[in-house]
């Protein structure tokens, strides 16, 4: 009987084994559509628009410096970074930023007669991109991520957050001349780019966005915070019950004041007031990318002087730190170091051949966009679309207009981006973790090099683990010695009896 029923079971198939119907596997198009809907959500478009502008405090100053000092084409950079923004928003589903590679930019615009040329800057970007793409595709970046302890990652984040904040304060207090890459005296208190403007922007941002901090911290809530959360949940449940029936199918949306949008629009108006001739200087016409010719000497100079100091910073801040921060902020959307490292590599392996500024993903940009309201991939998509429109219609003629944009406002936005990134480090509650984090932070800031701070943090972490191991073994030895001593005495006493 068992053999007779076997063919019948085979013919019936798996659809008759369960009580309900089995869903058909989704096609590739259906899976792509589902992923796209998850990554791009129009819950609050004003908040997403505000978050999209939250990273301009870093992007615009460095781009202006590279354009003025080294001749990097602004229109080409806007074109490629716009495409990058759109693709990263669609792929990751989080407000993943596209930022300049800061170490390469710092070396390129340094004072002296031997500043980097455009081919040398592109060679540095291509070299860094090739290394990150190799680490990502080979899986080595995953190994590196597992070996780096969390206190060291927090130390890198804290140093970057403090560095951003200090740079922002410098922008707000002193005038900046990007043509010579120097500060040119204290900023006046009054005027269309004065200190009072920066103070007003800071007050407005605090009133709109509050203290920030997000949910990137693993700290347990206090009793007062837990009571407030429970009260909010009860209020929300009551509101939902009262809205049933009359407003069926409608979702209750929270209104968010788009602080970054208002600050940016105010800056545009003030830029026109400061220099009305910038409007007449704008010319219609798209950016025209050209292939950059890189000589053997350019490869050597770009790799030695700019790529070598950039690679450790990219590995730590642009890959490991940004993945940790993203997974803390958005635990429902897992972002892997493999995908981020590969993304950074491919962006530069494509754009740098055409003269686009070397770029990366950064924890500071992610914190800034989150601070100003970005919650999914819509924010970078909107920013990328804006960059594409500007690049195709205005090209590089926008350079003069951006140069007249009030730096006090950009400094205010950058300040809160840095503070938001630094606040991610408050989950290091034990003495050992806080000690490692602060040692890494202090060395990184004093030497202005994240690689040296990383090495110091790793060394301190290993020394503390070694000390703990020695202490534990010593305690175990003492316990065993005392136990053996008591046992020996007991045996002697029993034998004497």
From TrEMBL:
Keyword Membrane included in the entry's annotation: yes
Keywords assigned: Membrane, Transmembrane, Transmembrane helix
Basic and acidic residues biased stretches: 1-11
Region (Disordered): 1-25, 217-246
A Pfam match: MFS_MOT1
InterPro entries the record matches: MOT1/MOT2
Bilayer-crossing regions: 45-68, 74-94, 121-144, 255-273, 335-357, 377-394, 401-423, 435-464
Entries under PANTHER family matching the protein: MOLYBDATE TRANSPORTER 1 (PTHR31970:SF0), PTHR31970
Protein name per UniProt: Molybdate transporter 1
Lineage of source species: Eukaryota, Viridiplantae, Streptophyta, Embryophyta, Marchantiophyta
């Amino acid at each position: 009987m068992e053999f007779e029923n076997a063919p019948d079971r085979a013919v019936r198939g798996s659809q008759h084994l369960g009580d309900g119907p089995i869903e058909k596997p989704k096609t590739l198009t259906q899976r792509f559509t589902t992923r796209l809907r998850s990554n791009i959500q129009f819950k609050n478009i004003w908040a997403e628009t505000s978050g999209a502008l939250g990273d301009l405090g870093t992007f615009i100053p460095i781009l202006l410096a590279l354009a003025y000092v080294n001749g990097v084409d602004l229109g080409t950079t806007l074109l490629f970074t716009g495409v990058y923004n759109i693709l990263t928003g669609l792929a990751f589903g989080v407000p993943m930023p596209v930022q300049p590679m800061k170490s390469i930019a710092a070396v390129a615009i340094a004072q002296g007669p031997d500043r980097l040329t455009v081919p040398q800057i592109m060679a540095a970007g291509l070299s860094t991109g090739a290394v990150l793409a190799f680490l990502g595709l080979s899986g080595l970046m995953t190994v590196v991520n597992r070996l780096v302890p969390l206190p060291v990652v927090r130390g890198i984040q804290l140093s970057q957050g403090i560095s951003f904040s200090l740079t922002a304060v410098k922008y707000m207090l002193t005038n900046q001349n990007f043509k010579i890459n120097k500060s040119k005296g204290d900023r006046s208190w009054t005027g269309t780019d004065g200190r009072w403007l920066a103070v007003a922007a800071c007050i407005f941002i605090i009133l709109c966005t509050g203290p920030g901090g997000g949910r990137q911290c693993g700290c347990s809530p206090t009793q007062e915070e837990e009571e407030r959360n429970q009260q909010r949940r009860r209020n929300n449940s009551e509101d939902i019950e009262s809205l049933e029936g009359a407003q069926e199918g409608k979702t209750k949306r929270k209104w968010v004041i788009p602080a970054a949008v208002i600050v940016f629009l105010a800056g545009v108006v003030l830029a026109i007031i400061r220099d009305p001739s910038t409007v007449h200087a704008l010319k219609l016409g798209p950016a025209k990318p050209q292939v950059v010719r890189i000589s053997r000497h350019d490869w050597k100079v770009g790799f030695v002087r700019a790529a070598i100091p950039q690679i450790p910073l990219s590995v730590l801040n642009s890959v490991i730190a940004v993945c940790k921060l993203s997974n803390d902020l958005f635990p429902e959307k897992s972002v892997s170091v493999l995908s981020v490292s590969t993304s950074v590599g491919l962006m530069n392996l494509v754009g740098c051949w055409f003269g686009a500024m070397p770029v990366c993903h950064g924890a500071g940009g992610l914190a800034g966009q989150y601070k100003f309201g970005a919650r999914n991939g819509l924010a970078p998509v909107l920013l990328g679309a804006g960059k594409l429109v500007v690049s195709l219609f205005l090209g590089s003629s926008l350079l003069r207009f951006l140069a007249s944009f009030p730096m006090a406002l950009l400094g205010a936005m950058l300040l809160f981006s840095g503070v938001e990134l630094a606040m991610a480090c408050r989950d290091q509650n034990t003495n050992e973790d806080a000690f490692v984090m602060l040692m890494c932070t202090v060395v990184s800031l004093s030497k202005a090099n994240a690689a040296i701070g990383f090495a110091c943090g790793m060394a301190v972490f290993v020394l503390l683990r070694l000390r703990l191991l020695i202490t534990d073994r010593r305690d175990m030895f003492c316990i065993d010695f005392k136990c053996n001593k008591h046992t020996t005495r007991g045996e002697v006493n029993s034998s004497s009896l």
